UniProtKB/TrEMBL annotation:
Residue numbers spanned by region Disordered: 1-23
Lineage: superkingdom: Bacteria
Record flagged with keyword Lipid metabolism: no
Record-given protein name: 4-carboxymuconolactone decarboxylase
Domain Carboxymuconolactone decarboxylase-like: 39-120
Keywords assigned by UniProt, alphabetized: Lyase
GO molecular function: 4-carboxymuconolactone decarboxylase activity
EC supergroup of this enzyme: lyase
Keyword Zinc-finger tagged: no
EC number from the UniProt entry: 4.1.1.44
Gene3D superfamilies: AhpD-like
Stretch forming the signal peptide: none
Length: 126
């Protein structure tokens, strides 16, 4: 990315690759256009270079929180890559199910039902 701040851009790119995998990041970078570049830089610096790179929580915990937040927001298109990331960070299928079930109590059954369906499909692909 052209305008990434060196401190957060490099860290963000490294962290993003470690969490989501090279294949996903390569696809995202290849699809970046002049129009989407500022957003990709924002995500790389902010989410990956600032937040996911902080020492306060381990990646396993961050993955659990992310699954809960994505379920609550019904961000279905983001769930598969973060289910894979959660597995990469050591969460078991049973733990992912517990996270989604726990989230249902606070966000509602429809949101969790969709998340369960997406997670089950994603886990079956592995």
């Amino acid at each position: 990315m052209d305008h990434l701040r060196p401190d957060r851009g490099g860290t963000g790119t490294t962290t993003r690759r470690q969490v989501l995998g090279d294949e996903h990041v390569d696809r995202a970078e290849a699809a970046t256009t002049a129009f989407t570049r500022p957003f990709q830089e924002y995500v790389t610096e902010g989410a990956w270079g600032s937040v996911w790179s902080r020492p306060g929580l381990d990646r396993r915990t961050r993955s659990a929180v992310t699954l809960a937040a994505l379920t609550a927001l019904r961000a279905h298109e983001e769930l598969p890559m973060h289910v894979r990331a959660a597995r990469r960070h050591g969460l078991t299928e049973a733990e992912i199910a517990e996270i989604l079930l726990h989230t249902a109590v606070y966000t509602g059954a429809p949101a969790a039902n969709a998340a369960f369906t997406i997670a089950q499909h994603t886990l079956a692909e592995e």
